[in-house]
Specification:
binds 3-methyl-2-oxobutanoic acid, 8-stranded parallel barrel, 8 strands, 12% strand
Length: 306
């Protein structure tokens, strides 16, 4: 941690927090009736949650995509409740005005409604305000049980990544009429059960529009076309901090990966050439005293020292 960071931040001070009112699941549901488009991104830690919130998003999703995006897994299947809770707590510490939704990972809810309620409650005890789970009518008992425990639920239909093996890869779903009708039935069943919104992922734009028009609750699309009631993107995709070829629906608004690589390369060059640190970046001994031994009072505290 640099002296200008969290420990030595008094010079700049924390950015003023947004005065906007807290977003709740009810706010999100009501946005559709008001014709307001919902803006959502993922966040997995304190700084990205803070920055996304300061940018004014409505909903922060602590998605199980964190397994692939920040933990380096091949899919979301290995993600555990312990990993999710660690990241949920970091996001919650940013005290976002946006609604914080935690994603139930694979095997945390499929086996029984009791599992679904217990694991959803663990998220709420760590400060999440709603949960998301993948699936339609086949997970209706789980959805109903979570809602009966007064925990708001965000549905997720279409290319649900936890079903990657059943789908045979990350393929656009519901391209044919039969599958599209089934997805619409799933969406209507989730709405009847009482979810406050539904994520639609990786489906044809026409179907995204049809489902959005058929529901009174909002749809939040990711690769589901412009007619959804809102859009969500994985933050790391949006800012250019992910690897590999981005999906067709990803729009990159920044190239943060390039910025980081080039900043670290400049640091490398400066260290190797002796340009870093300069005199201004070092401490001087008091004129009439011997140089102090290196100690905690003159060293920037490293992240290893707690
Ligand atoms: O895990 C996740 O980030 C998600 C979004 C992509 C919708 O489910």
């Amino acid at each position: 941690m640099s002296a200008g960071g969290a420990q030595g931040g008094a010079a700049t001070g924390p950015a003023p927090r947004s005065p906007r009112p807290k977003v709740t699941a009810r706010t999100i549901r009501e946005m559709k009736a008001r014709g307001e488009r919902i803006v959502s991104v993922t966040a997995y830690d304190y700084p990205t949650a803070r920055l996304a919130d300061e940018a004014g998003v409505d909903l922060i999703l602590v998605g199980d995509s964190l397994g692939m995006v920040v933990l380096g897994y091949e899919s979301t299947i290995p993600v555990t409740m312990a990993e999710m809770m660690h990241h949920v707590r970091a996001v919650v510490r940013a005290e976002p005005r946006a609604l914080v939704v935690a994603d139930l990972p694979f095997a945390s809810f499929q086996a029984s409604p009791a599992d679904a309620v217990r694991n959803s409650a663990r998220f709420l005890k760590r400060g999440a305000e709603a949960v998301k789970l993948e699936g339609g009518r086949r997970v209706l008992p789980q959805v109903e049980a979570i809602l009966a425990a007064d925990i708001p639920v965000l549905g997720h239909l279409g290319l649900t990544p936890q079903s990657v093996h059943a789908f045979g890869g990350y393929r656009v779903q519901a391209r044919g009429k039969g599958e599209a009708d089934m997805l619409l039935e799933d969406a209507l069943a989730l709405e009847r059960a009482g979810v406050f919104a539904i994520v639609l992922e990786g489906i044809p734009r026409e179907l995204g529009g049809d489902v959005s028009r058929a529901l009174s609750i909002p749809t939040i699309g990711i690769g589901a076309g412009a007619e959804c009631d809102g859009q969500v993107l994985v933050l790391h995709d949006l800012i250019g901090l992910s690897f590999g070829r981005p999906a067709r629906f990803v729009r990159r608004y920044a190239e943060v990966g390039d910025t980081i690589r080039s900043a670290v390369a400049s640091f490398r060059d400066d260290v190797r050439s002796g340009r870093y640190p300069s005199a201004e970046e070092t401490y001087a001994a008091a004129p009439d005293e011997a140089p102090p031994k290196a100690g905690p009072e003159v060293r920037a505290k490293s992240s290893c020292e707690s």
